[in-house]
Amino acid sequence: MRVLFIEVDTERDWAVASIGPGFLAAYLRANGHEVAFFRATIEMTDADVVARARAEAPQLIGLSLTTRQWLRARSIVAAFDRELPDIPVVAGGLHPTFAPEEVLAAPGFDYVCLGEGEGPLLDLVTRLAAGKKVGLLTPIANIWTKGGTKPTLRAPFEPIDQLPFVARDLLDEHPGLVHMTTQRGCPFPCTYCAARMYNELYDDAGGEYGRRRSHDSVLAELRGLRDRGLLSYVIFLDDTFTIHHPWVREFCRVYGDEYRTPFSLHARVETVSDRLLPVLAKAGASMVTYGVESGSERIRREVMQRPVTNQRFRDVFRWTKEAGILITANFMIGLPGETRDDLQMTLDLAEELGTDYGLYDFGYFVFYPYPGTHLFKLCVERGYLPGGYEEMPANHRASILKLDTITPDDIAEFYDRFTALRRKLYAHRAGKTEHVDSSALHG
Using CB atoms within 10 A of its CB, is residue 382 exposed (0-12), middle (13-18) or buried (19+)? Predict the structure, then answer.
């Protein structure tokens, strides 16, 4: 059977496509099916996407969707429903997993895959290829059929090392730039992040969703890329690469011995130490991204379930700088319960980390409550979401929430002040003497 995966771009073309379809495609190919892929760039109209899909002659169309991609994907699939009604569509990923009823209610979506997709999608493709129906009388675990009832979940795929390496032709990687995952699942209870919700989704399904590949598996994939001349920089996409120190230390030893290819990773300040960071640097770590999120310890503790102190950030940033590793960070504003004082604390901490503790670059985002997260449920319960929010694009530049402690104007003001701070840090890093007006930072 020929399956077409489509990456739905929003706002701009991303450097790498969703990695989930890369694993799904590899698994389908390993089991004898044909896979195609294209990116629905922002310049393409719905009609353009339909024409391209028709030219690929698929027997099934698959999309992996976040909430940011949902509205455009809904429009595209409605066009499929009008122009290509005989080709079924299956959607998976974060948004379909945690808002499946909304997806299945939209025209053109025939199936939703809940959670992990390799086994369920293969079962669906095998059954469709044989001309068999999927529905109430012939259910597939994890696959929710339009008009059907919620399916059961199968246990996560084990052992994870038996999954084929990701199909990189579906990732649109720049030559030599490699995106890798070494694990699935996240053990931390952050209320704003949907990654944790996969663990909770599988609590009753049997087995642990959190799994990590062996060193042999990761290194074998990298070795194959290196031998084809496709390895010059590695980006590890794991939510927290530094979770288990024995695994990380052994990885650094064997990776450093064989490769020493520069790499970047994501970490939490709670999961690194002044002893681990030099080990990472010696192996080739050139950049670490930390989630700071808020400069208010109260917001991190009470709203985000991240009980970590600002002093811990200062210490870890200093250790990272001393190890010779560049630092990027992410900040978030516009959270439930946040006040102007909390916003100022976040801006102040970002400026301090950038001036004194080695912060090289940072991203700043306005909070958006993603379906499935605990903060989404809180926003629903407290009436923070406006009527018709489902039709509002998910973006990180302006708040859609009706909060009772800060206004949209407050959030917009601090977003602009973060922009001014970023310009100031860029100028400082470039050795320039001019600076933005201090009033742009301090109100």
Answer: middle
Name the nearest CA neighbour of 125 among 28, 36, 42: 28
Domains of the chain: 2-145 (3.40.50.280), 173-442 (3.20.20.70)
Q: Which residue spans within 49-163 are E strands per DSSP?
A: 60-64, 89-92, 111-113, 143-145
Encode pLDDT of 20-65 as tens digits.
999 999 999 999 999 999 999 999 999 999 999 999 999 999 999 9
Nearest-angstrom CA–CA distance, 30 and 51? 28
Cα dihedral 130, 147, 119, 17 in deg (nearest 10): 110
**Is residue 300 exposed (0-12), middle (13-18) or buried (19+ Cβ within 10 Å)?**
buried
- Beta pairing partners, 287: 264, 326
Q: What letter represents residue 185's amino acid?
A: G
- What is the DSSP secondary structure assignment for residue 10, as one 8-state letter? B
Helix (H, G, I), strand (E, B) or coil at 110: coil
pTM of the model: 0.93
